[in-house]
Every structure is written in structure tokens, then in C-alpha cells.
Amino acid sequence: MTAAHPFDHAVHLDPVGDPADTVRGHTHPDWANMVGPFGGITAATLLQAAATHPEATGDPVALTVNFAGPITDGAFTISRHAVRTNRSNQHWSLELTQGDAVATTATAVFGAHRDTWADTEITAPAAPAPEQVDRGGLIDSIAWAKRYDMRFTDGALPADGTGSPSSVTTLWVRDSAGRPLDFPALAALCDVFYPRVFLRRGGFTPASTISLTTYFHIDAAELAELGSDYLLASAHANRFSRGYFDQSAHLWSRTGQLVASTHQLVYFKT
Amino acid sequence: MTAAHPFDHAVHLDPVGDPADTVRGHTHPDWANMVGPFGGITAATLLQAAATHPEATGDPVALTVNFAGPITDGAFTISRHAVRTNRSNQHWSLELTQGDAVATTATAVFGAHRDTWADTEITAPAAPAPEQVDRGGLIDSIAWAKRYDMRFTDGALPADGTGSPSSVTTLWVRDSAGRPLDFPALAALCDVFYPRVFLRRGGFTPASTISLTTYFHIDAAELAELGSDYLLASAHANRFSRGYFDQSAHLWSRTGQLVASTHQLVYFKT
């Protein structure tokens, strides 16, 4: 491996024997969350596992990651299985295990793109250019947050005790080391938002993503054109109730192109 | 089986041997789509498979169904595996096969509910009471649509050639035979919307759901209280591009309670 960027280290996978349906990886301290790795890097690693399988075809169009249990710092194994390959798409089932325990499951759909009628209905929130916004972040103890250049235009991490009537957070975000976007990096970015309940409640409460689904709206060539530029990422919650809330978010390019729609269900404690 | 309702027939599953991880079912003509079964009934059947496993615990909170290939009219087998059971939630992997071919994969998360801080940010669209709206539907050849009492308040199926600038469809909907809601029935309802591209383009084009994710916001007791009453269901698309679009939808009770948030990625041809 020649790439020196921490993202490439984190998603690096080694094949285990033949057939190619098993790979091994290792958590990376640069992507640590409060407990275990950042969910986004786990999503990225699972997508990377499918994308690097010798039978993979097409671009990712949908990804669902279920966080079934904690991932302990150290080695893990991913099984990656193309359950069905059709003429224009391919369906993947993935499972990340440590020892005998399943820590994460995922499904991914890869597909071909063709020119069709096109339109975007959703519009990006109004925001000043990223160069006009001060760099922010999360708290110092969150290692993974330092991997991103975050510039909040709405709903930054609240000061303790100051709740907000809205769960909306909007930020410009890019890799802080200038690594160009690819699909695993975009999958990780889709989980960049701190839990919406912190914003509403004005402080920390235990919260963790249970299930994360992302739809990718652009193909590999369109993604490559974005390079390492900022994306505008905006998230909101729909309903908080009895220990769970759902978040919906959208990521746009600087020119207003919708790059991904992403949704998650989050557990929260109080 | 004593229940005479077509929904119960469609989701009926017979255990196959022991352990309980395999069940068999059969497509039902009352739930046929143009080709194969209604995606919603497939989602319902997969959720039913998990919910009726002897080890199932908690209520469904998240469900993702990937439509990997066509389901032929006839028998199918579902494998249902609790990959991890935690103190407060349980993660399922499911696969629907016919012969050697995987037709559908799914993951489900079941969870416990606890009283917490709660709020709903999204509001239901304004709509007259269902009794004030004429009953509508889809086209006569779509068998499954007759299983529902649909009353469109916005974005009914367009007349050919009459496209709409908006992809929004809103309807009151309930089981036309008065079957009370349960989680499989709610999972099916989340796929009740005809493809958004029909509305925008003003007519039919081949389109099919690739991946469907639903988050359930209420527990079994809250769901039972809704009985067989109408839900207000509203869907919109975010972006149509190069053969795919994503739909987000929300379902509310008559009193304005958000019951489910549901998202899907749809393939379309032209």
C-alpha cells in the first residue's frame, strides 16, 4: 500500500484465500469515535469490500449498513457475497465479524448508469461559500472529526444546556488532508453529522446509529470531477420518540448538484 | 389458518423443519403487480418471516428490502437469521429464494421502546378528511391496488401526456377489507405509491424499486390503536438522474402522529 492518507489505511483490506468472498481489515486510531470506530468509516470499509471484489460491476447506487454491535479496536473480517448479478445491477450482502460475533451487516446495490430524463426537485439550503465560513468541528476527543474540514453554516454542536427548536445542521465538509472523493469516502461523509438529539436537547446523551441507508446520485466519473472540494451537507430529524429518531440528510456539490441522499435510524437514551 | 383476509393469505408462512430459520410461502394473485407481486407485499412477507421466528423480540424499528430479481408466481423460501440479539435490539438478515436464485434480500432491526424525550418536527400536509375525498386507485390491471381504499388529495395517477412539475403524491389509504394494521401491513403500505416518474413524465415508463427502507416510529400497542383507520401517506422524489430516482415518504395517523418514514431507490427506463 503506497497511499499515505489515513482514509486509505482505514479502508485497506487484505484478501483471505480463494474464493475472494472474505477479506480482513483493521480499525485505525485516526478514525476512532468515543467508543469504537466512526460509523462512517465502517460504512466506507464495507462498501470498499464490495467495490474491490473481483466480480464487482457498476457503481454503488444504494448502501444500507446495520450497526449490530460494537466494533472493538483491532482486526475484523468481512464476508462479501454478490447474491445476484443482473444485466444492469448487482446485489451484495456483507457481514463484518470479530471472532464469532457479527458486529455489522450491510447490503449494497451496484448499478449501471444510462442517460435518461433528469430533474432535481430538492434544493440546497442557502449558505455562504465555504471560504467565508470559519472552520469548526466536534469535541477534541473525537479523533475522526479531525479528518474533516467542517464549516458549519447552521446547527453547529451546541453549547451545553442550549437546546435548539430545530434539528437542522448544515455544513460545508471535505477531507482535511485533501483526499479526492470516491464512493467509500462519500459513504463515510454521509455519516458526518453528530446526533440530532444533541442539537435539540442542548448537550450530550448516549446515541448511536442503528441503521444507515445512502443513495448515490452520481456515477464514478461525476464523483471524480468533484475532486477534494467541499460538499454542502444538511441533516434534519423527522421524529424523536421512545428511544429512537430518524435523520434524513442530503449532500450537494458546490454547484448545487445533489450528490447523495442519506437516512438513518438512531437510538438515543433520554 | 382461519383468517380469510387476502393479506393474511399472502404473508402466510409455513415452517420447514428445525431449526426455525427457514420458512416457505407462496405468492397470492390478489397481490399481483404488472409483473410478479407488489413490492409492498414482499416487504411485508419478509418482515412477517422475522416477526414470527420463535426467537424474535421487540418491535420492528427499521427494515430494508432489496429487490434483487423478479419473483415468479408460485412458491418461495425465506431464510431468516437473527445475526445478533442485544439487550435492547435484534438484527435480522433475510433472503427470499426461488430454486437457486435469490430474488430478494432484507435486513430488519427489532428494538425495545422506552419513554424518552419526544418531538415530531415534520408536519403532515394539509388534507381534507378522507370521508370528503372520492375514492381513487391505480389502473384496473393492477390487482394489489384493489386491496387498498385510496383517496388522493394530491398527485393522483396522471392522465397520459400530462406531466406534473412536482413529484408529490398525497393520499389517504387503508386496507379495503378493513384488516387492522400490524407491522407487516404497515411495511406494505409504505410501498403504496406508484412510481414518481409517472407523475413527472405524465405516463408510464418501466420503473421498479431496487431498495426500500422503512423506519417505524410507533410500537405494537400504538399501532394497534390505529385499527383499520386511514393513514395519510405523502411521497416525493429528490433527484431523477441517469436511470434512478430516490423517493422519500411519510405516513401519518388521522391525528397527525408520524407513523413511518420510508425511502426507496427506484430504477426507471427513460
TrEMBL record, chains A, B:
Cite a single Pfam family from the UniProt record: 4HBT_3
Which residue positions does the secretion signal occupy? none
Q: Which SUPFAM superfamilies match?
A: Thioesterase/thiol ester dehydrase-isomerase
Species name: Mycolicibacillus koreensis
Region named Disordered? 1-22
Renumbered to this chain, the Basic and acidic residues biased-composition regions fall at 1-12
| UniProt protein name | Acyl-CoA thioesterase
